[in-house]
Amino acid sequence: MVVAEASIVEMAETLKLLSDKTRLTIIALLKEREMCVCDIVDILETTQPNISQHLKKLKNGGIVNETRRSQWIYYSLNVNDKPYLNDILNRLPSMKERIEALKPNSCC
Amino acid sequence: MVVAEASIVEMAETLKLLSDKTRLTIIALLKEREMCVCDIVDILETTQPNISQHLKKLKNGGIVNETRRSQWIYYSLNVNDKPYLNDILNRLPSMKERIEALKPNSCC
DNA sequence: CAATTATATAAGTGATTGATAATATAAGTG
DNA sequence: CACTTATATTATCAATCACTTATATAATTG
Prior knowledge:
2 copies of one chain form a homodimer. The first copy, chain A, is α+β, with helices and mostly antiparallel strands.
């Protein structure tokens, strides 16, 4: 894959997407595995529209992909073309515990 | 040096500092060398109070250091305790040409 | 098709942001 | 000390933001 050098403006726009604690937590979650909206809502303990709007921003910024599977829409990370994010992603705190805690009453 | 793991909230706050094109350009400049305020104003072609306020935010966020030398105040990068910024810093476009262009009529 | 579940969109709101203009502080110079 | 140069601070304003509430769309199920 060929990765073009990012301009400062492009980098700033992408970093703005990561500069909100809700969105950065979503990214930390998606780093562990793909997730549907209801998973993220459960883990972050906020409203569904709130998460939905943050996911829309991440999708528009090219940070995540979405795939519908029957009634659920799954989001996954799409950062392979942004190598300048690698160190951030590698150093995000692990969300494994919060994901495990979700399992029993899973929504999807 | 011991570098503590950053929380998501701390990382988001720091990334917000890098998410503005003026501030990210300042960081790209300071990556090449320390600079005084008037250098940065000349290169970025904006007003002195604008740069001064951005520098204040970067300083409060612990991203830059300041040192006064007679009437000039020099700013320099201070990112050694934030390894998650490494890939961003390494992939910022070079500012060497814009810094060279400044040299003749340098203000300090 | 009616009811339910999952998700998106729209409208409204208070808070924050980046920039500007005006003014203040601080150091250097004659 | 008056003047200049470098930088910081303050006040203001339009724009953007994150969140909430309400409503719409879409798929599933009986």
